[in-house]
Amino acid sequence: MKVLIHHIYEYRKGLRSLVMHTLPASLTEAATTKLRHFGIEYHLQQCLSGKVNIYFGKPECVAVVRRITHSRKLVEMTPEEDFMLGSMLGYGMQIQCERYLKKSGAFPVALSVQNCA
Known about the structure:
Layout: H1 2-12, E1 18-24, H2 28-37, E2 41-46, E3 51-57, H3 59-69, H4 79-88, H5 93-103
Antiparallel strand pairs: 1-3, 2-3
Helix pairs in contact: 4-5
């Protein structure tokens, strides 16, 4: 729960617009109680192995997460949905691009620099 408290702190200070926090399903009630206490919008997503992802942040961001996930697990999302979600969460763009290419079956690609004439 200490990491969740830190994520809430970062959100409230404006460092993040959207947070994804993974925790054991048994702590879901305590976590959502804390988010409701601060009036923070959230969305729950079931994971494999008895864990839950809690997405929380700006209402517009959480609304997009709801539309993207459609109550599916993270591993069930398309490469495009996964890319969008990772980008919204602020993950490094190069890593997100590599992840997208791998998930879409286009990796490894021969990356070359094109010179302009």
